[in-house]
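Re: that backbone. Tokens:
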């Protein structure tokens, strides 16, 4: 039972409960014995299903009335800002309010040993693998994963006090009243940095601003703690000189402390041999394709060894890892066509995901359906890099920009220029203005054996349901 002041059953209201992080933290509060309620605008699957599974009262829409039940604390989601009726009611009444990272820190992490998984790419997968390995070894970790892991019923779990807690260390800002990165709240005993590149142009002015945030995050690690860095990524490796603790490096490059030597990939299972300071630790059979997933698994393996788990035990467990929804997930197969969903929305992640798909289906035509949705891909920040990242596909369909009115003409992604640049690299491109148009194009042009890879960090205007309806 967690305590709030002198109460043993405190009350918390989540304003904006439908956010992925918010619903996961709400589940932790429920598990700890809090009385939980929330509010949000109308929600749709899968978020609506995650909130419904909590079994708590959810008010439709925002109103000061939603707070009349007298919560001890209000957790305000990152999507809310001044002008929201509940935000204004909280400020006017003097109710105690927090962001979800702050709530997580004060009510959960201070009583546990946090493992913060940070980086531009691979956070969700590495968090899920690490949680899975610690769980299989009997450590009963707590965790908060930024996606739906297939090996656990839910994306969060409280775990035991004084035990490990694996948390996805997001560098995005915390709340309208706290513009620091979320990972500043996570008090890591162990921190992993998978990669460090420019991202979130709506939050960070340039790469130096992100690098500074990561350097400052390292100051939270105790001298008895550990920092785990990917040596294949120059940005991540550059943090080594700023570490106040023991550093462990990993990667494919020979200069790493922990080296992965790639083997083969058969039926979606890739093998690699792990060396630690030239000593062979063993061969891993990872049921995930892609160099990036090999690197993610390496980070998780190091965390496992730091917890005293025998390497052979970790390798055996890893071979049964099921993965995460929306990470190279085959979500539909029909008429000889394989439909794959992935969350990639940065040029590096897109390139690596396409390469992973190529390794899984080397002899099949690969069509990429791309939604410019995030601030990274809907703007022209990575105009040329996006073209480079998609050149590995046979065909690319560039979908409509999500909420294009958010951007000015001089900052918005130029879809026609993107298409021309990709075609100059030898890949066929179609520009479509709706999900319906994309599905119609695929219906007319796809054939037996094709692989259709969807890249989006959102709903893509319901394209998944439209595909299932057309390809039954």
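Recovered sequence:
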């Amino acid at each position: 039972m967690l305590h709030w002041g002198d109460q043993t059953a405190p009350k918390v209201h989540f304003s904006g409960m439908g956010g992925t992080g918010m619903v996961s933290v709400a589940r932790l509060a429920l598990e700890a014995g809090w009385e939980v309620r929330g509010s949000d605008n109308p929600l749709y699957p899968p978020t609506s299903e995650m909130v419904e599974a909590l079994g708590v009262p959810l008010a439709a829409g925002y109103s000061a009335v939603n707070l009349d039940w007298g919560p001890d604390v209000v957790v305000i989601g990152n999507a809310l800002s001044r002008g929201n009726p509940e935000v204004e009611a909280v400020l006017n009444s003097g109710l105690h309010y927090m962001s979800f990272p702050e709530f997580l820190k004060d009510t959960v992490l201070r009583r546990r040993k946090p493992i913060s998984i940070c980086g531009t790419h691979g956070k969700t997968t590495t968090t899920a693998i690490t949680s899975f390995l610690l769980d299989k070894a009997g450590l009963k970790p707590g965790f908060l994963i930024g996606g739906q892991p297939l090996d656990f019923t839910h994306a969060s779990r409280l775990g035991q006090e004084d035990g490990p807690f694996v948390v996805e260390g997001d560098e995005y800002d915390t709340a309208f009243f706290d513009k620091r990165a979320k990972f500043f709240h996570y008090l890591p005993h162990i921190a992993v940095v998978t990669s460090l590149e420019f991202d979130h142009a709506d939050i960070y002015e340039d790469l130096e601003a992100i690098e500074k945030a990561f350097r400052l995050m390292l100051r939270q690690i105790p001298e008895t703690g550990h920092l785990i860095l990917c040596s294949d990524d120059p940005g991540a490796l550059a943090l080594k000189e700023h570490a106040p603790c023991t550093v462990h490096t990993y990667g494919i490059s020979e200069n790493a402390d922990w080296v992965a030597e790639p083997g083969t990939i058969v039926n979606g299972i890739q093998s690699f041999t792990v060396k630690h300071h030239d000593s062979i630790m063993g061969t891993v059979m990872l049921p995930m394709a892609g160099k990036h997933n090999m690197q993610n698994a390496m980070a998780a393996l190091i965390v496992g060894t730091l917890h005293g788990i025998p390497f052979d035990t970790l390798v055996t467990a890893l071979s049964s890892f099921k993965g995460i929804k929306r990470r190279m997930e085959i979500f539909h197969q029909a008429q000889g066509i394989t439909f794959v969903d992935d969350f990639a929305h940065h040029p590096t992640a897109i390139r690596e995901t396409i390469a992973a798909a190529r390794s899984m289906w080397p002899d099949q035509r690969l069509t990429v359906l791309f939604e410019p949705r995030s601030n990274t891909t809907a703007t022209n920040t990575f105009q040329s890099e996006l073209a480079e990242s998609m050149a590995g596909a046979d065909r690319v369909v560039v979908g409509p920009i999500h909420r294009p009115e958010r951007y000015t003409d001089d900052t918005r992604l130029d879809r026609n220029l993107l298409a021309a640049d990709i075609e100059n690299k030898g890949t066929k491109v179609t520009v479509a203005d709706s999900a319906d148009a994309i599905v119609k194009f695929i219906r007319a042009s796809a054939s037996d054996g094709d692989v259709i890879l969807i890249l989006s960090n959102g709903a893509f205007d319901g394209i998944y349901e439209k595909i299932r309806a057309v390809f039954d």
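The CA atoms of residues 218 and 243 lie 6 Å apart. The first helix runs from residue 20 to 31.
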